Amino acid sequence: MNKNQTEKEIDDFVISQADDKDAWERPIRVNRERVFFLNLSKALEIDSDKDILSGTPVFRGTRVPVSAQLENLENGVTLDEFIENFPTVKREQAVKILELFKSSLSQLKAA
Predict the structure, then answer these.
(1) How far, in Å, CA of 75 to CA of 73, rounded?
(2) pLDDT tens, position by position, 66-76
């Protein structure tokens, strides 16, 4: 990574790395002001298998993409409605995703 890259170039790089089968098991290093690591698969029971939705990260034991939760929340669907619409996702799994994003924001907070 080049230190003079734009945020979009860095984001594109990170997204391209997410296509890698092992991306959920190792940190992606980029040159930003702050660095923090997320190991999603173990802590949040997320699976990423090329045979399930072409490797899209899904809630473990389901075929429901993790991104579906964020998209539903973005569209005004409540957490309870999401669980009702995707009954294979356990409420605990959905809550852990929200907790991950909450803790991520805390890590990004300026010191």
Answers:
(1) 5
(2) 999 999 999 99
